[in-house]
Design brief:
The complex is a heterotetramer, with two copies of chain A (219 residues) and two copies of chain B (240 residues). By secondary structure, chain A is an alpha/beta fold. Chain A has five helices and 13 strands. Chain B has a single domain, classed as Glutaconate Coenzyme A-transferase. Chain B is globular. At the A-B interface, α3 and α4 of A face α4, α5, α6, β12 and β13 of B. Chains A, C: This is Succinyl-CoA--3-ketoacid-CoA transferase.
Chain lengths: 219, 240, 219, 240
């Protein structure tokens, strides 16, 4: 099974040269650490920044400079700052090439639920609904099963939806899966030490398994 | 130029009545109008509807107004990080309306641009869409969302001049420019107040026409919510 | 009868302290010369400027700095520059207090025609349709009759409209008139050397004449 | 950062096909992409639909393309000051669509902000409203106008960096930022091309994400349409 860092590392391979990328909170944030140095990528933070850099060195934190997770950050040369309307404007206009975010549930037709658990305190959707409704390419970074051992890859989401038919790819601790246009999770890759049967058991939605499922290349 | 300076936060907010609808700039605790919030707490204006991306934390930002139960309704996109907020919400003391962040920003901008409504795909297929008009354009569904006006918009800028022109710094810009455009009365607090001509006309973020009152704030705490740093000569991140 | 400069001077009296004002091409441009020095007024130029100043001194023209009439101008301390979308945004949001523009015809219900003469070359409406549709307060500066001696204050416009029910006040070489909410031109003031009967003859639309019509104070 | 530099106007426009829809920034002759227009004329790209506030003058700006009959359709708000334009229009060689200036600007912005349509009161009750949907909000009528996209948006900025970030100067900004956002491919020509980091992130007007190609232009003529000056020590204006 993959660690969170390994999930992030695997997702980083999906980032291509010239991409503008929005990284959500949690595992997606870690993806930044694994972007190959030989490709040109710009990170967007939806609170109004293109060209987000690493965390500041201790003592160099600037309270006026944070990311969408409210973490202190830095900017890289060539960065630009803008207001929230323009930020979501460029997201809505699909100028951001790839969005990576977490999820509580994903359905086999690409629906996502990641903002609300009925009966629990509702913190709000933040920018998640805008991102999933607008992004042309969304990868979900998530655990395959929840703490109770139940699959989070479902025939249909049980939690209130964040967006519909929007998720294209999922990377979990067990597998890499594409969401098929006609519905269903297509098993692209398995974690090196995980069997197809194990993944099948952990996937409640329709799983489409090709003849050969390669192990992820974690190099 | 038109002179918009008031002497203090107290004077700037003196006529905000109980029951007013306020917009407050900021993202988390970044770029919030600290001085005006303090003055609103001191004057104990109540029954407020607050439109702001977040609701502060327990002991800072809008959290200070929540603590004194000055807020009747909160309209926001994300309200975590605030236990008193949660208590009032669960007890029914506080109304909350949650709005996708981009929709919130664009509804403010729409008001500032005289557009009564905008179309966005955010929330299609979710409970956010309930009761709202859906239109299809080029095969994609969009929600029609209404422009957002506030009785008073209260924003924080880095620099401003006496004519109300504003310049923001780094990501403390966030919602401030779009809210500045959406207030029937817009109040700006700035760290540095300068004479007309000292700000480069090409680099003003909010033209003074959108600002009705401006004053030089003081004692900015600028609290950091998530202090994340890396160690020197290392790429490892650590959160504290 | 008033000269163009006198029309401009009379209109300048309508400008109040604290106003943001948009001046159209022609007579309206001249209004800037007569704004009292003791009031604070900011001129908006819809190509993207607040705080327009006078023409530059010879040799100081800047090709990057023009007004909506494409004339070289200057900026005053406290000016700001913005793009065309924000410029018309603030116009549409009624942040501009007063718009002064010319007209070919005005009707007694406040319609205006000032952009197109059928059969002649059509140059376009520029920003006129946006301005008249949005402005909360519009004053028209125009000649009372055209070169053929025909009234330009009509029961209904004969030319293609620029906007409907939007004109509040008209200043001509003969008179100052309000457009009544219920329709009709209310004669507020007459030019010093012009009789009410003369104005009546020159006004084809319904003219409402009160008992006393003072002569304009041209001081 | 992502490197967007091309070597020249020729390279920047090399793949613009006959029949393309172009947006061209500028207001009158102020802030127009002089180098790209010259390259389009030299390559003789034809059958173009041009969206631009104006159509240049007889011997400059888009007028140069009109002179070579490269333009099939002109979409603009004001097209005076151009005799060749008038001749082609009256002879039926040229199609023209006139759009209120604010509507033109906002339709471009809408594309850049992913909004399929906007509402504006401009044109209500006029021939501009014919065939368009009218909606009432708060008792006032608005036209629904569609977002405007172009195959190529061609803009002129003062400074730009290799990542495509743009800064405009004075009123040469005008339509350039909104058109830069609306191109499927956006080409920027700049007077000064600098390295990433040389432009202040807080004062970038067009973030590089909206720009696909950038180059340093040369030989800017910056022709003035209406040279108006005042005499020293006098308030009298004179037009020449």
């Amino acid at each position: 099974m993959l660690s969170k860092e390994q999930i992030a590392r695997r997702i980083a391979k999906e980032i291509k040269n010239g991409y503008y990328v929005n990284l959500g909170i949690g595992i997606p944030t870690l993806v930044a650490n694994y972007i190959p140095e030989n490709i040109q990528v710009v990170l967007q933070s939806e609170n109004g920044l293109l060209g987000m850099g690493p965390f500041p060195f201790e003592g160099e934190e600037d309270p006026d400079l944070i990311n969408a997770g409210k973490q202190t950050i830095t900017t890289l040369p060539g960065s630009s700052v803008f207001d929230s309307a323009m930020s979501f404007g460029m997201i809505r206009a699909q100028k951001v090439d790839l969005t990576i975010l977490g999820a509580m549930e994903v359905s086999e037709n690409g629906d996502i639920a990641n903002w609300k658990i009925p009966g629990k305190m509702v913190k709000g959707m933040g920018g998640a609904m805008d991102l999933v409704a607008s992004a042309k390419n969304i990868i979900v970074a998530m655990q395959h099963v929840n703490k109770a051992g139940e699959s989070k890859l479902l025939p249909a989401c049980t939690l209130p939806l964040t967006g519909v038919k929007c998720i294209k790819k999922i990377v979990t601790e067990l597998a890499v899966l594409d969401v098929l246009p006609e519905g269903g999770f297509y098993l692209l890759e398995r974690a090196p030490d995980v069997s197809v049967d194990y993944i099948r058991d952990a996937t409640k939605g329709r799983l489409v398994v090709p003849d050969h499922v390669p192990a992820m290349d974690m190099a | 130029m038109i002179y918009k300076v008031v002497s203090s936060a107290q004077e700037a907010i003196a006529d905000i009545p109980d029951g007013a609808t306020l917009m407050l700039g900021g993202f988390g605790l970044c770029g919030i109008p600290e001085n005006c919030i303090a003055a609103l707490v001191a004057r104990n204006v109540t029954n407020l509807t607050c439109i702001s991306n977040n609701a502060g934390v327990d002991d800072f930002g809008i959290g200070l107004m929540l603590h004194k139960r000055q807020v009747k309704k909160m309209i926001a996109s994300y309200v975590g990080e605030n236990a008193e907020f949660e208590r009032q919400l669960l007890s029914g003391e506080l109304e909350v309306e949650l709005i996708p962040q981009g929709t919130l920003a664009t509804r403010c901008m729409a008001a500032g641009y005289g557009m009564p409504a905008i179309f966005t795909p955010a929330g299609i297929g979710t409970e956010i869409a309930e009761g709202k008009e859906i239109r299809q354009f080029n095969g994609k569904d969009y929600l029609m969302e209404m422009a957002f006006e506030a009785d008073f918009a209260i924003v924080k800028a880095w620099k401003g001049d006496t004519a109300g022109n504003l310049v923001y710094r780094a990501t403390s810009r966030n919602f401030n420019p779009v809210m500045a455009m959406a207030g029937k009365i817009t109040i700006a607090e700035v760290e540095e107040l300068v004479e007309p001509g000292e700000l480069d006309p090409d680099h003003i973020h909010t033209p003074g026409i959108y600002v009705h009152r401006i004053f030089k704030g003081s004692g900015y705490e600028k609290r950091i919510e998530q202090r994340t740093v890396r160690k020197s000569e290392s790429n490892e991140a650590s959160a504290s």
